[in-house]
Protein 1
Amino acid sequence: MRITHLELTDFRSYASLSVEPEGALTVFVGPNAAGKTNIIESLEMITTGRSFRNPRWSEVVRWGASEAKISMKAEGANSAAGVELLIHGSGSRMWRSSGSVKRRTLDATRFVPAVIFTPDDLTIVKGPAERRRSTLDLLGDQLSVTYGALRREYARVVRQRNAALKDGADRQLLDPWTEQLVVLGSKLYAHRRRLARRIMQAAVGVYGSLSGGEKLEMNMWGRCGIGERSLGTDIPAGEIVESMRAELERRHSEEIARGISLVGPHRDDIVFTIEGHDARTFASQGQQRTIALAWKWAEVAVVREVVGKAPILLLDDVMSELDSTRRAALTELMQQDIQTFITTTNTGYFDPALLRSALIIPVGSGE
Amino acid sequence: MAFYAPPIARLLEELERLPGIGPKSAQRLAYHILRGDTEAAARLADAIVEVKRAIRFCERCFNFAESELCEMCADPTRDATTMCVVEEPRDVVAVERTGEFRGTYHVLQGAISPIDGIGPEQLRVRELIDRLGRESVSEVILATDPDIEGETTALYIARLVKPLGIRVTRIASGLPVGGDLEYADEVTLGRALEARREM
């Protein structure tokens, strides 16, 4: 699917904006604070229903306006879709697709998958574990409705169980929450592990070729009582359940004392090693950026594989953060028949050959 | 600036407190009442006051009732050996509509939710256990909501009731009858697959 039309009304800094992408690449050029990122954000919202900026919905309505509107038209080989998102100043949202109102976000966001790459993603190696989990989970949400539902339900169980622990709940009251933690948590762990494996399989090769043959490894470390086990090996569902139960039993008094849930996939982490060394401590900044790039490349491959269609690629101001070798690598990814939207302050970062076939849109100050 | 005469503003304010009623719906309702005759308005006001005066909780099952016992509890033809445990009085209505159940009910008046400060003491759990000790119930059907709070409440009650030697069952969750498989949402379909049975 390719986006053929994007229209913004009273969205963030834009009273109105209309973009009609032609070829594979659309570049928004302008100075800082000109509103380029708002366009990338609108594209992420209309395709996936969320924003990497995590705003309150009411914040995206232009100052003084009562509601914001994003509308998109997309065309595939033998399909077409029109999607509209209305965001009211009160924060309420309404999706419309092909003229009819969609009650659920996921009914309006299943047409065009998207992979987004922002400067924040460059901290994937050294940032907190939460950053790696959420990067993986946001991909999971796009790939499978079950993944998304499981993740939300599990998060609620953790909140409820933590509240019960803080209240000093007795064993009898805590046990049902523990049971739910195990049932939902073991499933989420298995899903997440499978997804991490897919990412690993695609990312390792990309990293190798970008780095001139360095060996990247990826692993998932959890607090589910499962020791270090290569992502490549399968762990039977029953074993995850048993490990979690045993680990919960082992750390029971610690959970009571600290008043929080210490066991479960909400404490999972993804660990990268380069040539056997922990990338968090040993990787240079360049190596970390290459990992981030390899990860995004892997996301594109995984979406293609699972959804069966190419995602659109949204790149917010990442060219300036990369050196020329990595820029070239990103350029190569963009040329894999993937519709790309990119913001930059300077077109000098781009391969001139690439720019010749691109639609370049100057973005002024707020209009 | 006041858009409405004070009595209208007051009505709007009260209507907007109702669940599911926003400013526009409140305005529509208020104007409907104003256009109608005085008797209609009096009937509505009367019905509201009367329902609060006449309805209380059933002393046995904690459903809404007009006297000490609700209709179901007062009906001697109902099977007192099976008991269906639900969260809210409206769930009783939902189960009754199926016409599949002829036993008695027990309304918990909520579900366990530590975030909201709701534990078993805030619900009618002790009353449930008391009833099971008094009455000769052979099966308890847990029909709390299929969300995580409802599921946890069901687990909690199951662990209290099973040691009493009473059979405990949980309603299945899955596909609605008459719905096309193709239109079922993926999560519901996934649940239904998990709860599949041998044929």
Note: The interface with chain A takes residues 112-115, 119-120, 148-149, 151-153, 155-156, 159-160, 185-187, 190 of chain B (CB under 8 Å).
Protein 2
Amino acid sequence: MRAWPFLAAAVIVAAIVFALARYLENDYVFYAGYVVLQFIVLATAWNILGGYTGYVNFGSAAFFALGAYTSVFFHKAYPLPIPVLMVIGGVVSGIVGLGMGYLTLRLRGAFFAIATLALAVVLQTLIINWTYVGGARGAYVIRPNEIPILGSYIQYLFLLMLVLAVLAVATARLIERSRLGYGFATIRDDELAAEACGVPTLGLKLIATTLSGAFMGMAGAPFPYYIGYIEPASTFGLAYAVNSIAMPMIGGTTTWIGPLIGAILLGLLQQIATVTISSAVNLLIVGMLLVDFVIIAPNGIVGLVKERRTASNVVVEPTVFVLLFVLNLSPMYFLVEQGTAAQSIGLVFWLVLAYVAHMRGRVLGRWWLIAFPLAGILFAFAPAITAIPVTTAIFASTILQIICVACGLLPMRRPAEASAR
Amino acid sequence: MTIPYDLLLNAVIAGLLLGGFYAAVTAGVSISFGILDIVNIAHPGFIILGSYIAYIINIRLGVDPIVASVVMAPVFYALGSTIYQVYYLSFERRGQEALRGLAFFFGLLFITEVGLILVFGVDYRYVDASYIGPSLHLGNAHFPLRLLVPCLVSLVLFTGLHLFLTRTFMGRAINAVSQDQLALQLMAADPIRIKRVAFAISIAIAGVAGALLIVIQPVEPSVGREYIGRIFAICVLGGLGSLPGTLIAAMLLGLMESFTSTFYGPSWSPAVSFGFLLLTLAVRPAGLLGR
């Protein structure tokens, strides 16, 4: 598809989404949908730099908060309509991105990543000490309840974010198919070779950082109006940083559709999860999925679908097998505390465990290894259906998984089989 | 404005003592990032983990936190060894360390922090030891033992590490692996094994540094994030892989932070390290004593 038909299609999809949300006549849909859309913008923005050029930005929260606090500043100094604030927030974040990039992108990639990590801490320090925008106490932003034409204000915010999401995804796709995108790809694959071939690497990297920062700032600008009360600790929180990295990584980093898939899946999962479990457990789940995906499926969901066999066989290595097992088992104990409804989210981790056990079992010729995690699923849901007490079920399940790890680590009996590996 | 002499003197002392502690915190990253070229941003996570383990042992068994951390060092060594093995197999071998390796360590940092929050909550935790309250007085100069003891332990650790890296066979092998991996292979040494040992040492040091941290200040899970900027600022400023440079840079940063918090207020001190980092990257990316 060319750029314009794609944009038209995206607008139609967005219109359908908006019509559906209005049809449901429930404001909660708009509140939840806004967050998912915001993550689509953040994930896509992150991917323009991280996925296309291969430079990792850990400071998404900083760029996001910069946009949000620009809005707070103007709300106090000189109230402006939100679309204008989004443009201003985008410009401010874009400029900071450019400056950061100019200082650090001439060096090795790792320096840029570290500098973005530190940027979040420093901007937070600045905001805490700047009382005009609320300082550490935070600031209230009273938004009107109603707006002409649309009715409730949240619908207006939802619509703005929807437009921004369409814009971000369309821009990402446009970049991917343009000279710019090919330039980015050369940087990702081999920067030295690209430089030698006359690709203006520094210029391209600066364009990517500025664009990426600008979109993050734009996503942050309406945030104070959405949340109503803004304070540094949560605005600079890890949730934004980890989500905007995890979403493209889980979806797939090299195409525009990867971050979109990742953001919709993870965003919806978290919106469902926040109803049943605490926000800390929520973040733990995202972190676990990030680690699982970078090890098991380096090209994300898109890679899994496209190549089918990319799911790397690295999981069969004993150390990786053990680490993945321990990591994926640990959230179960926190999920149990959150009640039975949370168990269904634990299913994701049980499936990862089953996959890991299956791969390891296949290499060892012990196909029955997969039975242990499957039995774990049964035990996880048993207390809800039968009279087995929760503690007994957890205990039994833990014993089973320990046996599974032990069986997975035992050396093979027949050396002939080992050489066939 | 005239600066009171006592205040200045004590700010210098506090800064130098703090700098000594920062040296221990950074030593691990100096090995992993400086020598091995592994961008282990999860390092502060392991430090905080060390703090909490020292805390548990101190509260449950009443053991001195620093002694406890030295006893626990082999456990951290094993942990580091496992993590390097996974990192090598999943990322380094496939040439994906730039993007996915970083994301992996970020995920680990994140999991440690959230896991600790889930287990211990966000309350500040502190330890009991005889040297936490009192100070040593020499005229107008005050040496708080709370800072002096970690600083001395850290200097011992740092000297030991420097001797290990320059005098022993393994230490020289670790330096060699950063210079030419292929040449090492030609001499029938396994570079992966050497890197694993070096990375495991860096994590073991992180565990000990964690115990020093909880002696100096009360700890809660997100304290680690403040240290990311500090650690890498010191590491880059000192020159990658140069231990003497790291020590000088740590002292400098300690002094700067001590002055900032004495004369402008402690809420500004996190910004100092970042300023340092950006300035170094812009002016002299090779660091003070860089190769």
Note: Residues 7 and 262 of chain B are 8 Å apart (CA to CA).
